[in-house]
Amino acid sequence: MKFSIITICYNSESVIRKTIESVLEQDYSGEVEYLIIDGASADRTVQIAESYRERFLVKGYAYSITSEPDKGIYDAMNKGVRKAGGDLIGIINAGDWYEKEALSVVAETYTNSAFDMFYADINLIKPNGSVMVKHSKFDRIVTSRHWNHPSSFVTKATYEELGYFRCAGIHDDFEFFLRVRKAGKKIEIRNRVLANFQTGGTSNQKSLKSGIRRIRDRYECYRVNGYSPLYMIECVGIEVAKAILS
């Protein structure tokens, strides 16, 4: 099978190397294309990405860099998904990185039990350097607590059937996950850390205003997929938990 890995970035010169190198260091020997979707960075992000072309050639992975203005994070993700030619698509954003066996584990899982979506455990890396494992689980009552986007892989066919990201809020990746569940698609999970996520971004900004925005955006994901208004309780609870644990 062929993997398409997408990294979106903007002014990411300080963190892009770790992400790129985690793809280069994969132990998967099958076909891989790596798509970097840059939002017309004003720093050295693109130059740094360009410096890896020879190493990807030696690795045998196809390597593509696109740099142009976009309309935000999910617009950039959609560009990558549209360009992707692989059977399985993974999205790992600048600053985050894969464990070296990530693609091999996903490929093995797909071979044993073909899926529409896959996700696994991740390491949450806090600004102070501490690490917490966020475990994956298929909850009977849907929630984002045990779903991890950095370790998610989705078939190209699923994106083409269900549509891409809505570009409507900061939790559009979760909305897509809800769409996959609502459609009854097959989901496989591995309780193994396959990706690392740096906290402290938009989804973790500490202010009442940003917290309220996240609650509204998350609840809208539930609402457009027909879930109960009671899910507002969970949306508030997640923000409270973030405030306590961060």
Averaged pLDDT, please? 94
- CATH C-level class is Alpha Beta
- Profile the largest sheet: 9 strands, mixed
H/I helix tally: 9
CATH topology title: Spore Coat Polysaccharide Biosynthesis Protein SpsA, Chain A
Q: Can you lay out the helices and strands and say which pair or pack?
A:
Layout: E1 2-9, H1 16-24, E2 31-38, H2 45-50, H3 53-59, E3 62-67, H4 73-83, E4 88-91, E5 97-98, H5 102-112, E6 117-125, E7 131-134, E8 153-155, H6 156-162, H7 172-182, E9 187-198, H8 208-224, H9 231-245
Parallel strand pairs: 1-2, 1-4, 2-3, 6-9
Antiparallel strand pairs: 4-8, 5-9, 6-7, 6-8
Helix pairs in contact: 7-8, 8-9
Q: What does this entry look like structurally?
A:
The chain is α/β, with parallel strands linked by helices. The protein has one domain: Spore Coat Polysaccharide Biosynthesis Protein SpsA, Chain A, CATH 3.90.550.10. The protein is built from nine helices and nine strands. Strands 1, 2, 3, 4, 5, 6, 7, 8 and 9 form a nine-stranded mixed beta sheet that branches. Strand 6 (117-125) and strand 7 (131-134) form a beta hairpin. Helix 7 (172-182) runs parallel beside helix 8 (208-224) and helix 8 (208-224) packs antiparallel against helix 9 (231-245). The longest helix has 17 residues, at 208-224. The chain is globular and about 55 Å long. It starts with a strand and ends with a helix. The model has no long low-confidence stretch (mean pLDDT 94).
Keywords for this entry:
9-stranded mixed beta sheet, 246 residues, single chain
